[in-house]
Design brief:
The structure is a single chain. The mean pLDDT is 98. It is built from 13 helices and 14 strands. Helix 4 links the parallel strand 3 and strand 4. By secondary structure, it is α/β, with parallel strands linked by helices. Bound molecules: pyridoxal-5'-phosphate. The site of pyridoxal-5'-phosphate (PLP) has 12 residues, from helix 3.
């Protein structure tokens, strides 16, 4: 039987799309070589600098997803045979490393257990051991969406400084940008990459990079074969408000509106809202008597909470149950934690009531799935916290 009302999308991206963005995209397509489009391009490129917190970085946009952004970053910055240090603490950092590997880049993996963040001291030790400076780049996922862990990019930068290592710092901010504080200039990041469908509240379909001067210089010597992903022609044509291919025109209309929404709320408040909704979620999880996959409180993600399923319960079966019972989607366990965790996404366009609706859905379906939770316990814990911090 069809369920009325909207499907409850509580996954860590794609996120809910605000009506304003939907309307902004519902426009007649325009000529992507005309003056109106050129003005749009300049406006969104400029606006994105604010979201990445950069003055000096260059923005590059492709019609692609986050996976495309990984490839764009790697093929422009590196050459086959180059060595990189990949910090692997979950499924997406594993895939980032694997992408590098498949491009002929030599990958040294710094393996960290799922649930932990990137340990800056271990990064420092690896970089100090690299006395002949073979490592050309350090790959980090700021927010590991598969485990609900946010690593300290500032900490990795400090580790690089202490080791006096000249490598490039390449950071995946797919599930952190526009939700968790990320400072491109201050942390001297060389490439930061993201997709449209998370904090930016857009449909999937844009890969967005911020690129430092140092990464631009590196790209002049980089030898990875590249055609579509070559950021050189994109940057050159962007100066004239154009792209070297047909761009995703309507998504760029949506992006302009997304930037307006984010700026109206103000980035600091966007970060505070995410932090508050995330803590409310964690309070609910604790009141259900369940455990987080994330190990350290100072690394809890403010965009996604990964919850460990109690022994004897399969999380894939639970997620299917919640979907069937309430038309609610939760994130599945990926990689090593398949069947063991479920993930509650709380990022993008989301307010207290919407979050509480999602938490009520989790609570009800845990109960009907047979997990021993007290109805109302998680919801009350979240409500108390939200009221205390209102
Ligand atoms: C941290 C992170 N990096 C990369 C990706 C891959 O992005 P996409 O699915 O848009 O290709 C995801 C997807 O969820 C992600 O969470």
């Amino acid at each position: 039987m069809p369920i009325s009302g909207r499907p409850f999308l509580q996954i860590p991206g794609p996120t809910l799309i605000p009506e304003r963005i939907v309307r902004a995209m519902a426009q007649p397509i325009i000529d992507h070589r005309g003056a109106k489009f050129a003005a749009l391009v300049r406006e969104v490129l400029d606006g994105l600098k604010g979201i990445f917190q950069t003055r000096t970085g260059q923005i590059v946009i492709y019609p692609a997803s986050g996976t495309g952004a990984w490839e764009a970053c790697l093929v422009n910055a590196l050459s086959p045979g180059d060595r990189v240090l990949s910090c692997v603490n979950g499924h997406f950092s594993h895939l980032f490393a694997r992408t590098a590997n498949s491009l002929g880049i030599e990958v040294d993996r710094l393996e960290v257990p799922y649930g932990a963040g990137v340990p800056a001291d271990q990064v420092e030790a690896r970089l100090r051991a690299d006395t002949t400076r073979q490592i050309r780049a350090i790959l980090v996922v700021h927010n590991e969406t598969s485990t609900g862990v946010a690593s300290s990019v500032a900490g990795v930068r400090e580790a690089m400084n202490r080791a006096r290592h000249p490598g490039l710092l390449l950071v995946d901010v797919v599930s952190s940008l526009a939700s968790i504080d990320f400072r491109f200039d201050e942390w001297r990041v060389d490439v930061a990459l993201t997709g449209a469908q998370k904090g930016l509240m857009l449909p999937p379909g844009l890969a967005i990079l911020a690129v430092s001067e140092k990464a631009l210089r590196a790209s002049l010597a980089a030898k990875c074969p590249r055609a579509f992903w070559d950021w050189g022609p994109v940057l050159e044509r962007n100066q004239r408000g154009e792209f070297p291919y047909t761009p995703a025109t309507l998504l760029l209309f949506g992006l302009k509106e997304s930037l307006a929404i984010l700026n109206e709320e103000g980035l600091p408040q966007v970060f505070r809202r995410h932090a508050r909704l995330a803590e409310a979620t964690r309070r609910a999880v604790s009141a259900w008597g369940l455990r987080l996959l994330a190990q350290n409180a100072d690394e809890y993600s403010n965009t996604v909470t990964a919850v460990v399923m109690p022994d004897g319960f399969d999380s894939d079966a639970y997620i299917a149950h919640a979907n069937q019972r309430l038309d609610m989607s939760l994130g599945v366990g990926l990689g090593q934690v398949k069947g063991k965790i479920f993930r509650i996404g709380h990022l993008g366009s989301l307010n207290e009531l919407e979050l509480l609706g999602g938490l009520a859905g989790v609570e009800m379906t845990l109960k009907t799935f047979g997990v021993n939770v007290t109805l109302g316990a998680g919801l009350a814990a979240a409500q108390h916290y939200l009221l205390e911090t209102a």
